[in-house]
Amino acid sequence: MKNILYTLFALFFLASCAKSEGESVDVRELNQEFISAWNARDSDKVISMMAEDVQFLQGEVIYRGKSEVSDKWVRETMGTIADLKTYPVSSGTDTQIAYEAGTFSVDVLPVSPGEPRGLGEGNFMLLWKKSSDGNWKLSYAQLEGHPVVARN
Description:
The protein has 152 residues and is α+β, with helices and mostly antiparallel strands. The protein has one domain (24-150): Nuclear Transport Factor 2, Chain: A. The protein is built from 4 helices and 7 strands. It has helices spanning 2-21, 27-39, 43-48, 66-78; strands at residues 50-58, 61-64, 81-93, 97-108, 118-130, 136-145, 149-150. Strands 1, 2, 3, 4, 5, 6 and 7 form a 7-stranded mixed β-sheet that branches. It comes from Pontibacter lucknowensis. Keywords: Isomerase, Signal. Residues 1-18 form the signal peptide. GO terms for molecular function: isomerase activity. This is Ketosteroid isomerase homolog.
């Protein structure tokens, strides 16, 4: 009888472990953590959330790899915008991949004193992949922005 109980316990334990490894992620939580780090200007955290082979696409410009994306997107852009907000329209998840797409808005900071703030808007898509260590990493980011307009 004890052997049956031990066997059932072992099967239950293994089944619960397998299930937790195969569960999908809440992509909105991932994106909110990313956006919160961006708005806090925490470039180290933003960069730590990216995969080594991350790609960033904006218009016809594409950056590949964590080093290039970190330098040319994160570090060059972070100080020029504020109050990034996203408005999801579509999302999907499974056990290895998650995405969210929709529209975004952001305050574009003036380059010189006396200039107005701008409003940037457009479409976005963020794609996350589960890494071999079980952590979710940003694998692909695409932004399609409209021309910036002056804020009143």
